[in-house]
User: What shape does this take?
Amino acid sequence: MAKIEKRLNELQPDEKGFFGTYGGAFIPEPLVTVMNEISEAYLKVKDDPTFIEELTMLQNTYTGRPTPVYYAKRLSEMLGGAKIYLKREDLNHTGAHKINHCLGEALLAKRLGKRKVIAETGAGQHGVALATAAALLGLECDIYMGEVDVKKQAPNVKRMKVLGAKVVPVTSGTKTLKDAVDAAFEAYLEDPKTTMYAIGSVVGPHPFPMMVRDFQSVVGREAREQFLEMNGKLPNKVVACVGGGSNAMGIFSGFLDDGEVEIYGVEPGGRGPEPGDHAATMAYGTKGIIHGFACYLLQDEQGEPLPVYSIASGLDYPGVGPQHCYLRDIERVKYVIATDRDALVSFYNLSRLEGIIPALESAHAVGYAANIAPKMGRDETILVNLSGRGDKDMEYVLERYPLEAYERQQLFV
Assistant: This one.
């Protein structure tokens, strides 16, 4: 335990934004001044009682915090072994954890006198959450989204438009999340003075990995207190899906100092280990630089990001947050894989057994928990961060992985 505590004392990034050797700000010169402005402003407001009071008020009266921790009794009984609990971030306003940092970023943009927020989105949840926060606070909002994801996540595209956001389809590259980030950064460079990039995860140049983590840490604080109240002890394992890693960093932050709690970040194993068939950065990546920060990266010999894939649009990113990279290296968090099939089976199982339709991203975490629960004792517990709800995925799943196949217990490929 002492070894872990010593390591965790170093988890705050240094003044240049590094977690160990990961993070930093590898950005064009025109953005240096702007990023410094955002960093200085955030460091001031994070301890400002008026900012904290306004954010807390919105979390409680607008977002619907605190979200509950729920014991998934029927799922646990079907699997045998450990009891599975869910941190219900799917019950937040807008349907996912993304609203936690979007409210914070939008409030900061207002403090800085910006008139517009700009962002990328994959599954659309960050786009919906930012469009919501922008509507609430009277800001313009542009959302960049890969053309593939625009079609795949049509319900969320409609929601963004209804909320007043401009949705910009990205047709370059693989037309997915990585390309949406590229396009959003290019647009941001055109007008950084009146616009703020509200990045959607614990990625990007400093201060975003720190800032998004801090806004998401409410998940871990709540979950730890709630679980202790329910069970009189901490969970044996905490599990969350990892793309860029914001929902995971949120819940992990509540348990990092508890050495007896095993923590698992679940990456998308997709269709298999070949490049282009997965987005399992920790499993197959090497250190590189993408979108202004250093991290583990799925890359070719020239350092260019490789094509990635996941059934879950919010997970198909070739990099991962720098703090996650650091936690992997110091062996505090174990990064594992769940396949498309794991996610799909859990998508249907959780729906049928608990009446909860999970986002495909969250279904990866449930899928990994379902794989390990039968190997654990009945007095042991797993806490899963259910980061979002699956309304956005219904049409896509039912069209390609029909309910009839699940009911016949056929394997999804």
